[in-house]
Design brief:
single chain; alpha+beta; eight-stranded antiparallel β-sheet; DNA damage; DNA repair; 266 residues; 23% strand; Formyl_transferase-like_C_sf; 3-methyladenine DNA Glycosylase, Chain A; DNA-3-methyladenine glycosylase II
């Protein structure tokens, strides 16, 4: 997919609202290079290499800049594919993401699936902050859902991380998930991603562009992607459910269900 490709828009950002950002002290991690383990060590049934370009044997993981995130959520979502999430020894590659929150101008219909449609609350305040922060919320009292805040301060937009592929820290991921498996079921679902990273709502508003803690790192761009309608928002209006705002890496098994609604972009 070329960077210049645009996807159908339903909304535009709203006016600024200033959030309160807590001060966090986290250990600083230096940029390091990832070298895949030998084939006979922790080799999964669906090899991790399936989620990486065949030519990548030595990946330089660098923290993304704040500017990377401060674009419209509809542009940020596909750009997050192939990037890495790192918390301590656990590294995941993002394989699927969807627009979760996207505010709009007052004179146009609001996204009925948007958490920020009712304004700023203690829960949603991070969404209205500047792009590049985490927004973590508890779903159904069980699942920690990781979102990446997009756009400028006050826009009220974020991208939900729906699925990932494990890159390192498989033992820790399995322990947190309570599953001794290396199949895609381990990480194909937003609640599974949050659990694998050991997240809680205390991570909400954490800057993902700052070394240490929870980081979002640069990674190789996928050769091709798939797009489809969002899932898990049956309560929303049909035009917002059917918007092609779900994105996934093509050719990887690390994608959540349903997969038959994902198609190459036109």
């Amino acid at each position: 997919m070329k960077r210049t490709q645009r996807f159908k828009r339903v909304a535009e950002p709203s006016s600024p609202v200033s959030p309160t950002e807590p001060d966090r002290n986290n250990p600083v991690h230096k940029t390091r290079r990832f070298k895949p383990k030998p084939e006979n060590e922790n080799k999964p049934h669906h090899p991790i290499s399936d989620s990486l370009p065949k030519s990548e044997s030595n990946i330089k993981m660098e923290t993304l800049s704040r500017d990377f995130f401060q674009i419209d959520a509809l542009d940020l979502a596909p750009r997050l594919l192939g990037k890495f999430l790192r918390r301590d020894d656990v590294v995941l590659r993002i394989t699927e993401a969807r627009i979760n929150i996207r505010q709009v101008e007052a004179y146009r219909p609001k996204d009925s699936a948007c958490h920020g449609r009712f304004g700023v609350t203690p829960r949603t305040a991070p969404v209205f902050g500047p792009g590049g922060h985490a927004y973590v919320y508890l779903c159904y009292g069980l699942h920690m859902m990781l979102n990446v805040v997009a756009d400028k301060e006050g826009a009220g937009a974020a991208v939900l991380i729906r699925s990932c592929a494990p890159i390192s820290g498989l033992d820790v991921i399995q322990q947190r998930r309570g599953q001794k498996t290396d199949k895609p079921v381990l990480l194909t679902g937003p609640g599974k991603v949050g659990q694998a990273l050991g997240l809680s709502t205390e991570w909400s508003n954490h800057p993902l562009y700052t070394p240490g803690g929870l980081e979002l790192l640069d990674g190789p761009e996928p050769e091709s992607i798939l797009v489809g309608p969002r899932v898990g928002i049956q309560y929303a209006l049909p035009e917002h459910v059917n918007a092609l705002w779900r994105f996934a890496i093509a050719g990887t098994p690390w994608i959540s269900a349903p997969r038959n609604t994902l198609k190459p972009p036109e």
